[in-house]
Amino acid sequence: MSIINRNKFMVNLKKIAVIVMTLAIVFVMTDMSGFKASALTSSKAAVPKFAAEKTYESSYTHPYNKQIDTITLHWGKTKGANRYQVYIKGGNYKSWTRYCTTTNNVVSVKKLSRATEYKFKVRAIYSGNTYSSFSPVQTIRTARMNYDKAGWEAMCRIVYHEVGRINDSMWDKPIVYVSDCVVNRFVSAKYCNDPLWTPFYKNYSNIQSIIYQSGGFMSDYGLTRDGCKYSNVADKCKVAVWGAVYGTTSYKGIKNDYSVYYWCNRSYYTNSSKIAYSFKIPWGYFSIWRTYWG
């Protein structure tokens, strides 16, 4: 090959190399452009909406015996969406983190921390990798303790009994603090290894056994005899128990107190800081109680 032909060959080779590089760059830019487009939201894309949290008398949001580490999310399917992305923040998730991508509209978020508040948001993905905006944020707490349906009913029944089956507003605070008392003993024994309560309750596997069988509360028979069936329990007792279990202000702005472990029906003052209320249970015509903080 002559020098002239060789030079022409090299020039053509360089031109081919430039064309190849240009095509490669165009391909990469197109691919990146497509990727960026997939991460962009469309104002026309329907946004999924979370179903409301269900609290007591349901395992819809908080599965029985998994309340300390699992939350089940539900949202309405949006027409045309083929996937959903769920994001979480709270506990060990210090910033918004994608928890999963799913084709379902129900997700059980697991391995959460006990008694912790979490925030969730979800968005839909449509064909062509078009994303919807995020849903409004839903905030849900995990429980301080696990329980099943029987355990829930036992807690509500004993609270209803200890305030004398009264549903008057003057009993709102006692209802809240008796709820705290019942829950605090179990939480201290089962989750906090409290030296006072753990030895006493270590042989009981669930809250209903502690209430019905330990002797520290009242039996199933006794509650039934006194008219404290679950079907009779006042709704405010259920709300108060929910507040004690989930660590929320439970009723009419009354804050839960996690230092309360006792209550009594004595009408005189005591020097124990563990007794929140000293009152006469209003059987018959009695309706006397007074606040006491040790």
From TrEMBL:
Q: Which residues cross the membrane?
A: none
Q: What is this protein called?
A: Fibronectin type-III domain-containing protein
Q: Which organism is it from?
A: Ruminococcus albus
Q: Where is the Fibronectin type-III domain?
A: 57-145
UniProt superkingdom: Bacteria
